[in-house]
Each structure stands twice: as C-alpha cells, then as structure tokens.
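Dear Dr. L.,

I hope this message finds you well. Following up on our conversation about the binding site, I have prepared a predicted three-dimensional model of the protein together with LZUJQKHR. For your records, I am including the exact sequence and ligand specification that went into the calculation, followed by the structure tokens. Please feel free to forward this to your student if that is useful.
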Amino acid sequence: MKIGIVGYKGRMGKEIKDLFEEKNHEFVWGYDKDGEYFQEPPQIIIDFSLPEVFEKTEDYVKKFKVPLIIGTTGLRDEQIEALKALAKDVPVVQSYNFSIGIQLFLKMVDFLKDKIDGWDIEIVETHHRFKKDKPSGTAKMIKESLDKDVPISSLRLGNVAGDHVLYMANLGEVLSISHRALSRRAFAEGVLKSAEFVTNKKNGYFTFTDVI
Ligand SMILES: NC(=O)C1=CN([C@@H]2O[C@H](COP(=O)(O)OP(=O)(O)OC[C@H]3O[C@@H](n4cnc5c(N)ncnc54)[C@H](O)[C@@H]3O)[C@@H](O)[C@H]2O)C=CC1
Ligand SMILES: O=C(O)C1=N[C@H](C(=O)O)C[C@H](O)C1
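The resulting structure of the complex is given below.
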C-alpha cells in the first residue's frame, strides 16, 4: 500500500516508515513541522505526532478520503469525538499503545479488577527523556480499565522505549503486572497490523483491541 505519515520525521514516524518499506509498502506522502512531502496521494494516513497537529490530520484524511491509524497520545475529549465523527466516512483505528503485550496486560487487568477491592493500587510508567506528555496514554488506558481513581507515577529516564507496571498490594502480599517495550518496533508492528485490518473496511471506529 501507499502510505502517508503525519510526524514522519519523528521517532515513531521513522520506525513506521522503515517497517512498512521493509514489507514492500511505499511511503508517498508526509506531513511534519516543515510542511508537506508529496510524491502521490496516500491510500492510508498514519498519525504519530502531537495533539496540536490533530486538526491538520483531520483535514488531510477528509481531503484524501483514506483510512486513519492514530497513535498520538494526549488527545482531548473533543478530538476523540472528532475521530468518531470522521469514522462515519472512513475507517479509523485509535490506540495509545499498539503493542500486543499491552493488549494482554489490559485483558489481565479486566480479569483482576473486581478481585482487588480494598487493595492499594498504583501505576508506574517510565519513558525516555524526550517524551512530551505525562502521564503516558497507556497509563491512562490501564487506569480506565481498572475503573478506579488510582495514582500514576511518571519517570522520564534516558532512552526507555516504554515501561508500564501495575502494582496491587494488600497487607500480606504484592502482585504486579509489568510490560516493557524493548524498542519502538513493537508499536510499528501493531500499526502495520492495523493498516492491514482496515484495508477491507469502508468506515468505522476501531481500537487496537478490535484489530488483534
Ligand atoms: N500509540 C502508540 O503505540 C505510541 C504512541 N506514541 C505517541 O506518538 C507520538 C509521537 O511520538 P514520537 O515519535 O516519540 O515523538 P517525536 O517528537 O519524535 O515525533 C513527533 C513528530 O511530530 C512532528 N511535529 C511536532 N509538531 C508539529 C507540528 N506543529 N506540525 C507538524 N508536525 C509536528 C515533529 O517534528 C516530529 O517529527 C507521541 O504522542 C507519543 O506519545 C509513541 C509511541 C507508541
Ligand atoms: O511516547 C512514547 O514513546 C510512547 N507513548 C505511548 C504512551 O504514551 O503510552 C506508548 C508507549 O509507551 C511509548
């Protein structure tokens, strides 16, 4: 497929471009801080940028009438609503984490959440020093899955690709679930799966849970 990437000069943008090209897909369009790169119209747009770029992405998806895969974190509620509106016309896949491991993590949380009433529960996330948002989108997803107002601690250290730990403790024991992304490749592979997932869809709002 011919892909377009919003944020194509960023860490995730480059990782996604590299993986798709290894799989014989073609990077034909991009948008970044210094404007548009145009070779030909894309068949799909992938956005890994910042929430302030969202309206541009929305305009380009409408212009090219193509599916959107969006992993940008820190989106505002009205931006999520705008994605749902966009999904009436094109397929949209939105997730704050495109790794398989975090999907399994969320399933474990779902299994545990009504068995840990009265326990102390805390989320700790660690990311590279360049990450702009805090807490991470994934930590927010874990909190939402728990259905509880639990504290989130954020560490910004070196070049960590993404660690998430959920601690649960009663007076006698500590239980934890942890996930470590060893590189950004894990996220890029989830984006590729999502791009393949939407190829036969006309429209609809999906999360990465629907994809796997
Ligand atoms: N959902 C997921 O699985 C994952 C999500 N992310 C999220 O993806 C986003 C990007 O992460 P990274 O690639 O590490 O960041 P980055 O900072 O390396 O890349 C962001 C790109 O957006 C561009 N950009 C910034 N402002 C812009 C503007 N006003 N107009 C056009 N382009 C602009 C930057 O120039 C840069 O190339 C973040 O929100 C991050 O949290 C990151 C990894 C995995
Ligand atoms: O910015 C990152 O790098 C990451 N962001 C996502 C998040 O905020 O949860 C996903 C991953 O942990 C890497």
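In brief: Residues 71 and 95 are 5 Å apart (CA to CA).

With kind regards,
A. P.
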